[in-house]
């Protein structure tokens, strides 16, 4: 089972009251990081992924958490991300929490093993209504009662809205997860396009991205920003560079910094995990 661990020597489990813990869990893997809120510095990252062609069950995730003394501490703040491909945006003036299942059903079919949750986002003024696997949401509620459960697009939207406000024109973000990706296009902080696409190959990703760009009149001089499960010179990067001349990888920003142990880490791969601390 693939495993990554980065720990700054200043980490002290007895100081957990000064730490903010952020976790992300799904059948594709389990990750968590720790922010030292005294120095506003990330000092720990751990990631566990299932073996090839396998999925991580909630039972196995529970075993990992239970055997790890770090998440067992009492932290200053706790964030949990439950990523999924199934979500929709509802304008805040139209939102009624009692109708969250109805909003979801307008675009998606609810499955038996899902529950419907929602997050408020400030930009745009809307709610993310999303599905979460029942077993993982129940695990989170059992281990961390009362914690807010975030969809992965909540910190993603927060982060790209921040970056877009500093751009003179369009801002385009492609966030890659396993089996699906999010495409966001903003202009001066205003969301112009947001959708999730399932994919089986890199060709599928390129088809959707280039088709949206063609329909929106986006030319190859624009910058395309990547985050998630991609890296420089992989197949997606190489094929995208044949069309877009400017490609960047999104580094998380906020009121925080990173320990030197993260120097060789591709921070864009954990953009949402590091960015969720920006969410309130």
How does this structure look, described?
There is one protein chain. The protein is α/β, with parallel strands linked by helices and 280 residues long. 24% of the residues lie in helices and 34% in strands. It contains seven helices and 15 strands. Strands 1, 2, 3, 4, 5, 9 and 15 form a seven-stranded mixed β-sheet that branches. It is globular.
Q: Which structural class is indicated by helix and strand composition?
A: alpha/beta
Query: Taking Cα atoms only, what radius of gyration do you get, to the nearest Å?
Result: 19 Å
The main sheet comes to: 7 strands, mixed
The name of the CATH topology of the largest domain is Nucleotidyltransferase, domain 5
Fraction in beta strands: 25-35%
Query: Can you write the helix and strand succession as a string?
Result: EEEEHEEHEEHEHEEEHEHEEH
| Helical content (DSSP H or I, runs of 4+) | 10-25%
Give the domain tally: 3
Calculate the terminal CA-CA distance, rounded to whole Å. 33 Å
The overall pLDDT, averaged over residues, is 94
User: Please, what is the CATH homologous superfamily of the largest domain?
Assistant: Protein of unknown function DUF3822, C-terminal domain
Give the overall form.
globular
DSSP helical segment count: 7
CATH architecture of the largest domain: 2-Layer Sandwich
CATH class of the largest domain: Alpha Beta
**Uncertain segments of ≥5 residues (pLDDT<50)?**
none
Q: How many strands appear in the DSSP assignment? A: 15
């Amino acid at each position: 089972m693939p495993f990554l661990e980065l720990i700054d020597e200043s980490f002290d489990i007895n100081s957990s009251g000064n730490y903010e813990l952020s976790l992300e869990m799904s059948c594709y893997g389990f990750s968590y990081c720790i922010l030292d809120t005294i120095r506003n510095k990330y000092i720990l990252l751990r990631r566990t992924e299932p073996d090839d062609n396998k999925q991580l069950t909630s039972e196995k995730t529970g075993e990992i958490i239970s055997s790890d003394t770090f998440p067992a501490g009492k932290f200053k703040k706790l964030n949990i991300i439950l990523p999924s491909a199934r979500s929709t945006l509802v304008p805040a003036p139209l939102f009624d929490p009692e109708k969250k299942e109805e909003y979801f059903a307008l675009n998606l079919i609810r499955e038996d093993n899902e529950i419907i949750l929602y997050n408020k986002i400030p930009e745009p003024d809307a709610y993310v209504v999303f599905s979460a696997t029942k077993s993982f949401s129940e695990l989170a509620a059992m281990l961390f009662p009362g914690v807010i459960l975030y969809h992965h697009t909540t910190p993603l939207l927060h982060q790209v809205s921040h970056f877009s406000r500093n751009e003179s024109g369009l801002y385009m973000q492609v966030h890659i997860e396993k089996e699906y990706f999010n495409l966001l296009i903003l202009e001066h902080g205003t969301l112009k396009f947001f959708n999730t696409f399932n994919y089986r190959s890199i060709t599928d990703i390129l088809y959707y991205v280039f088709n949206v760009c063609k329909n929106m009149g986006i030319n190859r001089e624009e910058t395309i920003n990547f985050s998630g499960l991609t890296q420089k010179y992989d197949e997606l990067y190489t094929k995208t560079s044949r069309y877009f001349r400017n490609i960047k990888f999104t580094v998380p920003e906020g009121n925080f910094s990173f320990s030197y142990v993260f120097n060789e880490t591709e921070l864009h791969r954990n953009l949402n995990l590091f960015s969720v601390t920006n969410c309130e």
